[in-house]
Amino acid sequence: MLTASDSIFHVAWRDYRNGSPDIFYNRSLDGGLTWAPTDTRIDTSPAGTASAVEPKIASAGPMVVVAWQDFRNNGSDVYCNSSIDGGATWKPIDDRLDTDPPGSAQSRDISVSASLATVVVAWRDLRSFPADIYANYSTTLGTTWQATDVRVDTGFGSALNPAVGVAGSSVFVVYSDAEVGLPDIRGNHSIDGGATWFGQEFELSRDTPGVAFGAYPRVATTETGLFAVWEDDRNGQPDIYFNRLGAMLVPGGCPGLTAPQVDRAPANHASFTIDCPPPIATCTTPMMLLIGTCATPSIPVPPPLGCAACELVIGDWIGAVNGSLTVAPGVPPGLEVCVQCACVALSTGGVPCAALFGGMSIVAMP
Question: Can you give the pTM of this predicted structure?
Answer without folding.
Answer: 0.86
